[in-house]
Every structure is written in C-alpha cells, then in structure tokens.
C-alpha cells in the first residue's frame, strides 16, 4: 500500500546548535507576516505519548539574505495567530472525519 501522506519536515537549530525536527502543520501569510505552525517530531513512540501535544508558532523573517524562523514574542499576535491556526485545523479535520460523513 502506498503512503498517500508524507509529512513536510523542517529541521531548526536552537541557540546551542542543537537540531530539532518539526512537521509543518500549516503556514499562513497575512499583513503581520508569514507564520508556521510546527509540531515536534519524536524519535520514539514513547516520547510522542509523553509529549504535551503542543505545537509551536514561528515567524519567517529575512536575516542576512536568508529566511529564518523565529519565535513570536508578541503575546497578542501569538494569540491571534493561534486562533487562526486552530480554525484551520478544525476545517482540515472536519473535512477528513469519516465518522461525520456516515452520520
């Protein structure tokens, strides 16, 4: 069976040059900029089960001619973006929920 879904992955370096791999859940572009919703990729199923299930929101900014992702530090903007991403996630999962189709 072919896998129809392949996750879009991105690897980021933290301040200490440690690599962290994330799945890109969604990207939005608005008047405030370009923002990514990222979910950590875990090395083992146990790590995934133990995780808190949170995703992270990063802003794409240009630095020295390269696009880099930085944390969103403005709490009001972060709340606004979280609402937008949550709305997108609800739309995506509502469209793909086979149980609702059978009701």
UniProtKB/TrEMBL annotation:
<dbReference type="InterPro" id="IPR009711">
    <property type="entry name" value="UPF0473"/>
</dbReference>
<protein>
    <submittedName>
        <fullName>DUF1292 domain-containing protein</fullName>
    </submittedName>
</protein>
<dbReference type="Pfam" id="PF06949">
    <property type="entry name" value="DUF1292"/>
</dbReference>
